[in-house]
Design brief:
The complex is a heterodimer.
Chain A: H1 11-24, H2 37-44, H3 48-60, E1 64-65, E2 73-74, H4 78-100, H5 107-135
Antiparallel strand pairs in A: 1-2
Helix pairs in contact in A: 1-3, 1-4, 2-3
Chain B: E1 2-11, E2 14-24, E3 29-34, H1 40-47, E4 55-60, E5 73-76, H2 88-98, H3 104-113, H4 127-139, E6 145-149, H5 157-166, E7 176-180, H6 184-187, E8 193-198, E9 201-207, H7 208-215, H8 219-227
Helix pairs in contact in B: 3-4, 4-5
Classes of the chains: A mainly alpha, B alpha/beta.
Chain lengths: 136, 229
């Protein structure tokens, strides 16, 4: 697991976000066991107290469940899991909107620009994919 | 918990500590930081009873330090003090013979972790390797508290990473760590508490996660504010 920290946001929340991203992209699935607090600290290079705090937060948000002494697991609550993707996307869009706020661009122009850029990006990605396939 | 209350210390006319108060809980990493001459090393030495204080009190788990208590605290100075002609293996034998709380299993585990060779002589080690060996001597002791003076000082980036990794491992679990450092940028995400010193006074102390949460500032941001004069 690779995680780059920014030092201005609480590290434990960055860890929670890291887990949300892995869930949203299907790298972590409902019911999957997750590393112990100690293992996580070692893997992510964080203070064990921070790992503990991150797990506590994820338990409170219902992302993980811990029963007795067995390892914690990703929840099987599909409602909670479904919300994660939406939450991450909304957050990313909000950040983006804040960053373009100063430019005072009309909504229509912004939307059409996003569409153009997105299509361009997807086209270049599929070119790359084809290229890679061609090599092998 | 290590607790300092209004600790004052003079060297001759020079006031080195001018009423220092802070607590360092067990199971947490507390970092003393500040520019040169701020009094960081003096604080560690005062806790260890290696230098007398003029006034104030130092308490460890609620009581004044005494001989038996110092077996539960390890102090790692910024210099490796083993004689240069000794091999690492000989150092281990020496530690085993002289310290009741030396933990051989942990020492060997750390040897592998730090990629050190037991047959190497102390004076043949690079600066980075010497720093790792120095830290190893402290970590291999069964102790409740560890005081580390500049564990990252003058150490190459790869050794720094290996040393930093120790602070996210079971090696520090349950122990109280107080460390001093200049190299705060790379390790700030590992710190629980930060105590900033300037000319023997505490200018700011805080929990680093609280600082990020409440003010959106990194430890380095706060250092810039505090020390920019």
């Amino acid at each position: 697991m690779e995680l780059l920290y920014n030092n201005r946001d609480p590290v434990y929340l960055q860890v929670v976000r890291h887990f949300k991203e892995r869930i949203a992209t299907g790298k972590l699935l409902s019911g999957d066991t997750i590393p112990s607090r100690r293992e996580l600290a070692g893997q992510l290079g964080i203070n064990p107290n921070t790992a503990q705090k991150a797990y506590k937060e994820m338990e409170e948000q219902g992302l993980i469940v811990t029963e007795g002494n067995s390892p914690s697991r990703i929840t099987s609550d599909t409602v909670i899991l479904g919300r994660i993707r939406e939450e991450l996307l909304t957050e990313a869009v909000d950040t983006f909107l804040a960053s373009v706020n100063n430019i005072e661009v009309p909504a229509e122009q912004l939307l059409s620009l996003i569409r153009t850029r997105l299509e361009k990006k997807q086209a270049s990605q599929s070119d790359q994919d084809l290229g890679e396939k061609g090599v092998t | 918990m290590i607790e300092l209350v209004d600790v004052k210390k003079r060297f001759g006319l020079k006031k080195v500590l001018q009423g220092v108060s802070f607590t360092a809980p067990r199971g947490a990493i507390t970092c003393l930081t500040g520019l040169n001459g701020a009094g960081k090393t003096t604080i560690l030495k005062a806790i260890m009873g290696l230098t007398p204080i003029q006034s104030g009190s130092i308490r460890i788990d609620g009581s004044a330090p005494h001989q038996a208590m110092y077996e539960r605290i390890v102090y790692v100075s910024d210099q490796l003090t083993m004689p240069g002609r000794m091999r690492i293996a000989d150092c281990f034998t020496f530690m085993q013979d002289y310290y009741r709380n030396w933990n051989s299993d942990r020492a060997n585990e750390l040897l592998a972790r730090f990629q050190l060779n037991a047959a190497d002589k102390v004076n043949s080690l690079s600066k980075g390797m010497a720093a790792k060996l120095n830290l190893l001597f402290g970590l291999a002791m069964d102790a409740d508290y560890m005081l580390l003076d500049e564990p990252f000082s003058g150490v190459d980036i790869f050794s720094r990473e290996e040393i930093a990794a120790v602070f996210s491992s079971e090696m520090v679990e349950g122990r109280g760590i107080i460390l001093t450092t200049h190299e705060i940028k790379e390790i700030e995400h590992l710190l629980d508490y930060v105590v900033m010193l300037d000319h023997g006074r505490i200018t700011k102390q805080f929990a680093s996660e609280d600082m990020r949460m409440e003010e959106g500032k990194s430890v380095v941001d706060v250092m810039r504010e505090v020390y920019k004069r």
